[in-house]
Design brief:
CATH architecture of the largest domain: 3-Layer(aba) Sandwich
Structural class: alpha/beta
Mean pLDDT: 88
Helix content: 40-55%
Number of domains: 2
Strand order of the largest sheet: 2-1-3-6-7
CATH topology of the largest domain: Rossmann fold
Largest sheet: 5 strands, parallel
Oligomer: single chain
CATH class of the largest domain: Alpha Beta
CATH superfamily of the largest domain: Response regulator
Strand content: 25-35%
Number of strands: 14
Length: 232
């Protein structure tokens, strides 16, 4: 199933689109405000975003700029009312990949989504997120939002050592699961032929937590191992 986020405040339109796309094997999450959309995006990145231009708490282009600052390759389709050519121009200036004019035919919307996904691939696999932490797998980069004043809402990049990155990546790939210390040592170190003792994991985990600002989502399961899970 392909995950898709639809940011739309009209429940009738949102439900009609959701029902149709779910019949086409999409998993659709509807957000009624831009604030709600930001919250779900920080938890999990979808394959594509459908974004209405006029929302109760602002314009869609502000969310699009924020998306581009954090997930450059995430496909975005704007939904605009007929005749708003200025909206369309602004939307593309702020990073939208395509647009569909309201009222629209559901089959037309579906074909636009399919075409964009063919061009972009499944971007959701590139980004792993937990709370305010994001791993860009393709770039091997880690970002974290500590509520600091960062231009355009971009998250701060955290510089990790190779072992710290591999540890975080393994935990992210198993988000929601408790992984044992033995399994971590096997997957992060032994798989690369680096045989280390148990204390190496303890020290690396401490450094990782310090660099990430002691995140609540990185939990210790006493006498067993560790688990990443969303707390917000």
């Amino acid at each position: 199933m392909i995950d898709l986020y639809y940011i739309e405040d009209d429940p009738d339109i949102a439900n009609a689109v959701k029902d149709y796309l779910e019949q086409k094997a999409f998993g659709v999450t509807v957000c009624a405000t831009l604030a709600q959309a930001r919250q779900v995006l920080e938890t999990r990145v979808p394959a594509l975003v459908l974004l209405d231009w006029n929302m109760p708490d602002g314009r869609g282009d502000s969310l699009c700029r924020w998306i581009r600052g954090n997930w450059k390759e995430l496909p975005v389709i704007f939904l605009t009312v007929r005749g708003d050519s200025g909206d369309i121009v602004s939307g593309f200036r702020n990073g939208a990949d395509d647009y569909v004019v309201k009222p629209f035919d559901l089959e037309v919307l579906y074909s636009r989504i399919q075409a964009l996904l063919r061009r972009s691939g499944n971007v959701a696999k590139q980004y792993l997120s937990c709370d305010k932490i994001t791993v860009d797998v393709n770039r091997r980069a880690v970002f974290c939002d500590w509520e600091e004043e960062i231009p355009c809402g971009k998250k701060k990049e955290i510089i990790l050592s190779a072992s710290e990155y591999q540890l975080l990546l393994y935990l992210m790939e198993n988000k929601g699961k408790t992984v044992t210390r033995e399994k971590i040592l096997e997957q992060v170190w032994d798989m690369n032929g680096n045989y280390v003792n148990d204390n190496t994991l303890t020290v690396t985990m401490k450094r990782l937590r310090d660099k990430l600002g002691q995140p609540a989502c990185l939990k210790t399961v006493r006498s067993v191992g560790y688990r990443m899970e969303d707390t917000i």
